[in-house]
Here is the input.
Amino acid sequence: MAEKISSLNYQLDFEKSLDALDDIQMLSEFSISPLVSNAYFYLSEMKRKADNLANGKIPNSSAVAGVLDEKITMIMSEFFGNKARFKSYNLFKSSDGLDLKKWNLVFETIPEILSVVTLFNYHGNVDIRFDESRLIVSGLILEDGNMEVNRKLIYVITRRLLRAKVLLTFNLEKTARTGLFKLDLKADLSHDESLSYRVLFKVNTTEQYLVGFSNIFYRYRSNLDYIMLLDSHNVVEINNDLSIKHYVGLPDLTRIESANKEILHFPFIFRPLSIILPMKGNLVTEAFSRSLDDENKRKQDVSKFFRTIDFFSLFNL
Here is the structure.
């Protein structure tokens, strides 16, 4: 009897989540709404209850994933099918790798992401690529004089997405036609709490720290030659003693010095950022969110503590 009641509650949560997603779909302008939070809550409850089941599996998980896949397709179709904004579009989608937690993130943040898309004057066809790690919107845009006007709003949305551990970056290229640019707008969804980008900080000969950053760092590794070609932008250097220095433009680095350091570049809209680490890191299966006070850590040599840094909060855009 208890199992039957639990199953009914699970189904009710699932149905409520679908209702909330239906409401999101009907928002023609994808404005920020409490409905998004409702969808996130109900899907989270569904995941939590499913995880408590004895077999640890979600009943009809393929059916659930299929419904969510249909919902995202409908949202994209309604948004990019707006002929007043887009001439045509192509959707390249691979959602097989998304678990419910990642679906939560997608539906929580997609209104913010699409609200940025509306700020650009697209010309011609638009390509949308969506999978478990990214949402990319690519197309030609016309410079209509509003880009600077929209700077503040894009800044606010970028900060909101950072709080959800989503990076909104772009790549803008000139074309042969004056005032026409190719824009790749990318929402990076690849942060994984079960991974970390680990860097060894050597404070001195007797004190060192293994510091875990988000696995996203691995995707943004760069080099001195590339960074030197960029316009002046914000640079953050994290030293061996974990002190932080801020620069506008790259500090003086020799090629030998840069070869030993890790240089990362994040092409945020309007305010790109480079981060310099004292040593190159490695992507490891070390939980990014694990507590600094757990029992294993107390047993470690204090000179080799593993620490995690929420680098999303480091971005002072």
